[in-house]
Amino acid sequence: MKAAILYGHGLENLHIQDFVLPEVGDDEVLVRVTLAGVNPIDSFIARGLRKVQSFPRIIGSEFVGLVEKVGDKVSNVREGDKVIVYPRIFDGSCDLCIQGREMLCRSGGLIGLVSNGGFSEYALVPSKNVFKFADEIGWEVAASVPIAALTAYHALKEAGAGFNRLVVVVGASGNTGMFAVQFAKMMGSKVIAVSRKGWVRDFGADYVTSLEQAYDVVKSESGGRMADIVVDPLGKETFERSIGLLGVGGRIVSFGVLTGEEVKVSLSQLYNRHVSVIGTTGGTRREMMEVIENLGRLKVRAWKKFKLENVREALDEIFSPERDGRIFLEPY
């Protein structure tokens, strides 16, 4: 099979080559990958910003496909099923897994980082990582579940989104942002999207504004109370302003560092207004099931699709200022 194989940190070490099709273990599933989502984390892994412990490594953390073959002890799926792959390797026995927080497993990690991923024609994964979804659901929406949608959903739950909440989503046209807007709206919140893309309104935003105008808009829309929750996956360039959008008892939730990870924070802003800073990553398998149950209500804006042989270009385009939606990779 063909796969995007990383032989060392740096895009120059990423090559499309033949890879021996692995044998399927008793509790494993061989997935014929139909579509993969391209995320910043894939670029970080390829460039060495997230360290791979051993090479060679097939990258790609977000993907869906058809079940090609199952192990002798697999009962949750069968050949031909359409499946979404939960993107975290976990042992199921550590204290965090027992608490139901598999994404924080002490001996696990992200598929495509600690194990071979889905930028390939086939992927071999544990059976506990595959979830069936309905035939009527499109591949693009399904391929956005494991990272883009699940990350946003988990973050909003941790932040307490719900009825009568004012939620601000910074970077609302990004991979996670477009889903944060949809989920916040589905949870009953009023949503202000910070984006220069007008189409975000079609995803459920009540108001779309620029970061420069966000303070005045939030103040006006909240009657002066300011926001209950700010979702900011961008990092350094926006974080300080995002905190300024919060009202008393507000919560800012962060799960990304696209513009840098070191931020300046005024502690007096936090304690004088009882502001909470929440860090999240990924989501649980239970939450992934909840997202899958609502796939029919979700949509995604696709921008470009690349063939597997153009994976380097796809990883570069993820940071393009012209990007206007999701980037996908087609193995075939």
Descriptive report:
This protein is an alpha/beta fold and 332 residues long. The chain has helices at 40-47, 95-98, 139-142, 145-159, 177-186, 211-221, 236-244, 267-272, 285-293, 311-317, and strands at residues 2-6, 14-18, 28-37, 57-58, 62-70, 82-85, 88-89, 109-110, 122-126, 130-132, 166-170, 190-194, 207-209, 227-231, 246-254, 276-279, 302-307, 326-330. The strands form four sheets. Strands 3, 5, 6, 9, 10, 17 and 18 form a seven-stranded mixed β-sheet that branches. It has a six-stranded parallel β-sheet with strand order 13-12-11-14-15-16, with helices on both faces. The termini are close together. 45% of the residues are buried. The model has no long low-confidence stretch (mean pLDDT 96).
Strand content: 25-35%
Radius of gyration: 20 Å
Domain unit count: 2
Give the strand tally.
18
Instruction: Tell me the name of the CATH homologous superfamily of the largest domain.
Output: Medium-chain alcohol dehydrogenases, catalytic domain
Average of per-residue pLDDT values: 96
Q: Terminal Cα separation, in Å?
A: 11 Å
The CATH architecture of the largest domain can be named as Alpha-Beta Complex
Number of helices: 10
Structural classification: alpha/beta
Low-confidence stretches: none
Q: What spatial form do the alpha-carbon principal axes imply?
A: globular
Helix content: 25-40%
